[in-house]
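Structure first, sequence second, as always.
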């Protein structure tokens, strides 16, 4: 189908004549069909669908989604789906056929990009004109089709954009810089539709990375950064923050404000955590009290969320506590006072240190215990800290950090 088909009127269904009992039956039938599909009992699902269609008990608009589920299993190649979807779009015209039309687009996208483009272009000028997803996907598709056209024609010059999203999940969406190439599909057209999508839904950041990448390919780097900063000011999205980190020319671990927010949003982050925290611990004397507090909370949260077997986390904590106990004792107490009692039981119980192997993990953890909780003289933690089995490096760490 080269152009989206404007639906014809459906046979009217007077909902006022449907009793609550019949509505319940209809809902139950739909639930049964869905259950059969999930259980891969496609024969039963097909029989029930056929019965409902033949008796007129359900409208097409009620059953088109489960019908597609059955058809996809009976025709894995999907060759019959486009024509069936065309009929369905006509058959459910009493409601906005947004879902069915987008399903038609996605089906075409699996086999023929040009067909998908014609379908969504027609839909965007008709019922889909007010749908942000229509304009968003159209913008992305235009950008992709332009790339395909450029790469298929060796005569056209292609200069890939320096990839700015190497630190994000969008690292595979790489565009060629705009260099006055004559192509059927243009970045300016892609930009227009992506902007429309973002205007129509200001709270959805799904299309933001594609829009930003298009701006950068158009050599509008500053505008791309401004878009991300405005979005991030409106809503603290970790996806937007990851893009801002990628666009910053500095290494991620050198972006202190960004990295603090990132680690606060994602306490399980593993790529940059150790290097960033290590860099910050090397310069605590020149760190503001606000950042000191945030660093301590990031380390503490990492331990409390289950990272107790990592020696490095206890080492970071011991270094932080030693520094704060002299210069910022009130700050340290504001965070650790409420934890001392249950940490003593959870992490520093005597049984955990009795006959334990002398490893870096045991030494760093024992050092934190000595710093944070009251220990009796017979506590096995002291045997670790004062024992002869410590390596020279471990012994030096203990002497430098016990309080």
């Amino acid at each position: 189908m080269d152009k989206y088909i404007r639906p014809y009127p459906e046979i009217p269904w007077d909902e006022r004549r449907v009793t609550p009992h019949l509505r319940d039956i209809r809902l139950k039938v739909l639930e049964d069909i869905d259950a059969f599909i999930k259980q891969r009992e496609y024969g039963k699902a097909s029989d029930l669908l056929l019965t409902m269609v033949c008796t007129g008990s359900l409208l097409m608009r009620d059953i088109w989604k489960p019908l597609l589920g059955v058809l996809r299993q009976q025709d894995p190649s999907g060759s019959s789906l486009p024509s069936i979807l065309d009929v369905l779009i006509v058959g459910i015209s009493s409601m906005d056929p947004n879902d069915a039309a987008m399903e038609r687009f996605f089906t075409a996208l699996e086999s023929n990009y040009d067909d998908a483009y014609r379908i969504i272009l027609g839909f965007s000028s008709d019922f889909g004109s007010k749908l942000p997803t229509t304009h968003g996907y159209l913008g992305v598709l235009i950008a992709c089709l332009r790339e395909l056209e450029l790469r298929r024609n060796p005569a056209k010059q292609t200069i890939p954009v320096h990839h700015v999203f190497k630190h994000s999940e969008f690292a595979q969406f790489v565009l060629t810089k705009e260099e006055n190439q004559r192509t059927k599909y243009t970045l300016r057209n892609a930009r227009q539709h992506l902007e429309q999508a973002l205007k129509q839904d200001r709270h959805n950041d799904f299309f933001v990375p594609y829009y930003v990448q298009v701006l950068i390919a158009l050599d509008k780097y500053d505008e791309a950064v401004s878009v991300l900063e405005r979005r991030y000011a409106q809503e603290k999205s970790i996806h937007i923050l990851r893009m801002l980190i990628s666009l910053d020319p500095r290494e991620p671990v050198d972006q202190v404000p960004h990295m603090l927010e990132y680690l606060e949003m994602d306490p399980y982050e593993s790529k940059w955590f150790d290097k960033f925290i290590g860099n910050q611990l090397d310069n605590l004397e020149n760190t503001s009290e606000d950042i000191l507090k945030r660093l301590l909370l990031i380390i503490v949260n990492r331990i409390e969320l289950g990272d107790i077997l990592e020696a490095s986390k206890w080492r970071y904590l011991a270094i932080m506590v030693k520094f704060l106990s002299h210069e910022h004792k009130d700050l340290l107490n504001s965070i650790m006072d409420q934890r001392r009692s249950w940490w003593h039981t959870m992490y520093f119980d005597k049984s955990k240190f009795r006959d334990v192997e002398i490893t870096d993990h045991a030494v760093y953890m024992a050092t934190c215990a000595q710093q944070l909780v009251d220990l009796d003289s017979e506590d096995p933690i002291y045997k670790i800290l004062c024992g002869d089995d410590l390596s020279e490096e471990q012994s030096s760490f203990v002497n430098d950090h016990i309080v």
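Margin note: The two ends are 77 Å apart (CA to CA).
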